[in-house]
Amino acid sequence: MTKVVDKIRKKTARYGLAVLFVVVFGASYFVTRHKSQKNEESVNLQKIEYAAFTESELSKFDGSDGSAPIYLALNGLVYDVSTGRDFYKTDGPYHYLAGKDSSDELNLVGGEIIKKKYPVIGRLIK
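User: That's the sequence. What structure does it adopt?
Assistant: Structure tokens below.
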């Protein structure tokens, strides 16, 4: 009886180690892959030549002119949020973010949504 129990324990230990290896290897793979994707995105952003905006120039695109595009800056990049005009126009709920560097506000909440939803069209020059 003890031999059978010992065999079961050894097999369980081997499978446990195999499962642990797969979990650790898998997790490290995804972490490494995620970091390399971020590095590739960073390199790709550096290769593209963007228009340069000063804060004064950016302020002209604050949503108050219904025919002009609406821009906002986040972490040094300028995003065209015109497709969300209803949110960023003068009486829109997010108008206070339009036409300026909104990094402080958006880094608290919402920055990832901006990055995923809207195109980068320039760089902010301080």
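The CA atoms of residues 13 and 19 lie 10 Å apart.
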